[in-house]
Design brief:
This protein is an alpha+beta fold. It has 2 domains: 85 residues, no CATH class; 68 residues. The chain is built from 4 helices and 2 strands, in the order αββααα.
Amino acid sequence: MKILPWLTAAILLYIMVIGTTEISKVLGITTTIYYDEPITVSNRYYEEEVYSDLTGFGLFFGFLSFAVAFRGYMAVDTGTLNGGVSPLGNIQLLIILVSLFAHAIIEQIIVFILDIPDLLDFWLSLGCMLGIGYFAYKFYKKKEDKFYLDNEK
């Protein structure tokens, strides 16, 4: 087992978590909502107590941190800067990050700026998430088709 890629990923994850936390503090962005008391969430087979929830920016920063750490692992493991990822894979990661960022901005506006009822903000946020996901998928499919057409020649 190679230890250097794992060590690199752990260090990058630590740096990214601390960095994104500091960035969110400086910009005044809410990434986590803490509840006054534990809330019991019933799932199909079990119940759990939840003390906090991530906002859209919390989800975005978390995904970004893990993506950077994982790409660092891959780069050190393969010995190449691209980490053995194709240009199409890079486009896919970029589209996911831009989609999460767009959703985070929209959710921040819906939840923290607009004063609307909780149930309505849930459905509005869900609708925006589905719309962003749909357009991101369509954009990716166009890029994928273009990629394969260019590589056929």
